[in-house]
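Re-run with default settings, no changes from the original entry. Doing this only to confirm the output is reproducible before filing.
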Amino acid sequence: MSKYRVVHNNHYSFAESVSHCTLEARLKPLDNKKQTVEFSQFVVRPLADSQHSELDEFGNHVNYFEIARGLRSFLLSAIHTVKTMPLVSIDLAASSPWENLVVSTDADTDTSAYVGFNPELTDYARVSFRPDRPMLEAAFDLMQRINADFHYHPGATRVDTTAIEAFQFKRGVCQDFAHVGIACLRSLALPVRYVSGYVDTKVNSKPPHRVAADASHAWFSVYDPEFDWVDFDPTNNQMPGETYITLAYGHDYDDVAPLKGQVDTQGGNQLKVDVDMTALG
């Protein structure tokens, strides 16, 4: 068992003064069997004129903030203390044959902004998903192949890069690797979801791991009825455990973006993000 304090700062600055700004944040970690949120606080400067929270369709915490007065910048800080549980060892080979878990025969109907059906991704997936192979064993193999075949290269892709673009580039960051894994599984009509969160880079940046400076992290999760949702991190080539904190689930990044906003200005804006994840013992 581990305990972490996370401070996630989002600092917006604007080229000209704006009179109204609304923010939508998915920055509060989930409470589940893998982690417990012991403390959670949001700090907004300048103070928000109104704020409220609710759960979205995936069960994620969404916090809304509105600032209705002139400003040139604002800071939104999310501060949390989370207790995490060790990874429970499971026998991947004991999972169901993947063909038994197909949820649809029409992969084209389950697409999203970042993840769409493509025969190249289907062919790539089938190397891991051989006939009658256990679902979790195949997903683990897919995770390893993505880690080996793709180069971790910050700046090579954009926040709006799609799964097929990242697949063809063979490079990118955690968001891209998660999208490629999801696209492969979804092309076979298998249950899969995008996961956003944090990873302790002080532990996970050592060779052979490749994440050293992500503001936040992303991976994918697949479903088997015997084991529930099981996480796989292709960026670090491992199954997430107690050095990970989960923020949100969704179809892809668009569902779980940490911060979205609407600002009534035609001028430019700049977002600076920094995250400090500190082990408390």
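The first strand starts at residue 2 and ends at 18. The helical segments are 119-128, 135-149, 163-169, 174-187, 201-204, 253-256.
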